[in-house]
Design brief:
12% strand; alpha/beta; six-stranded mixed beta sheet; 13 helices
Length: 274
């Protein structure tokens, strides 16, 4: 996109702590005379992930920071830098949800305006944050893409997503960006653990006209619900609240098209953008 070509490079260390982390990682690695593959092997990650971290396109985990210190013998430098990276990558009030999301056995969410973060393309996410005119857009996009890695694990959670038809019809970014995002939704459902359902306009009012939310089922302990908000979100862990939102979610699914009909609708809207 034109706006991206005119902006500062995402790996400019003066722009963010995430970019500083990535640049320092590359510098220390090169000073040690090690290849990306060698550091990746020592850090127990893929070379692709290491490259993305160096380019500030993914957020490093705390475990990665500690292993990078060990491989590069940096005396805990990256472990000390990691909390600053996290402070700018995720708001404090959202960080707990991100941590719990990694251990979820099932994720169920509803969105009435935008595609859920776990299923967004990079360009779609970039367009959303650009519209909000946030200062650390690149960090936030990288953090969002990093969260999506949990859907690539062997023991990944089940993901059930309900979308208001608004999500398909509201153009975000260019027609190409929006079409690719809709195609991504269709592709995601090729994984049998991911289900997407659309609540069509002709339903009229539905059970969550007041906004989006997400729930997590955890292997140990009770589930939780995250309720989105403009200034900040809220995590609800009490049993009564979780049950209330679960009932609301059941009502939304009852109003939604079947998974197959939903994919047909998403595909049809994508073709309209061709």
């Amino acid at each position: 996109m034109a706006a991206e070509t005119q902006a500062e490079p995402r790996n400019n260390p003066s722009m963010s702590t995430l970019a500083f982390f990535g640049t320092e990682l590359r510098i220390r690695r090169e000073e040690a005379g090690l290849t990306q593959q060698q550091v990746a092997d020592g850090s127990l990650c893929s070379r692709t992930l290491l490259a993305h971290i160096e380019q500030a396109r993914r957020v490093p985990s705390e475990e990665f920071a500690a292993r990078a210190d060990a491989v590069l013998e940096t005396g805990g430098f990256f472990a000390r830098l990691w909390p600053l990276v996290m402070e700018y990558a995720y708001p404090k009030w959202f960080r707990r949800f991100v941590d719990l999301e990694k251990d979820a056995t099932e994720i169920w969410n509803f969105e009435n305006q935008v595609v859920p973060g776990l299923l967004q393309t990079e360009d779609y996410a970039q367009a959303l944050f650009a519209a909000a005119r946030v200062a650390n857009t690149d960090d936030l996009v990288a953090a969002r893409l990093t969260r999506q890695q949990l859907l690539e694990k062997d023991k990944r959670p089940r993901l059930w997503t309900a979308l208001d038809e608004n999500v398909l019809r509201r153009p975000v970014g260019s027609r190409v960006v929006m079409r690719r995002q809709l195609e991504r939704l269709v592709e995601a459902t090729e994984d049998r653990r991911i289900i997407v359902q659309v609540i069509p306009y002709n339903v009229g009012a539905h059970a969550s006209m007041d906004g989006p939310f997400a729930g997590l089922a955890l292997a140990e302990g009770p589930g939780i619900v995250y309720v989105d908000g403009r200034a900040r979100g809220q995590i609800l862990a009490d049993e009564a609240s979780v049950e209330e939102y679960r009932y609301t979610y059941d009502l939304l699914r009852a109003d939604a098209l079947s998974p197959r009909a939903s994919i047909d609708l998403i595909s049809a809207v994508a073709k309209e953008l061709s």
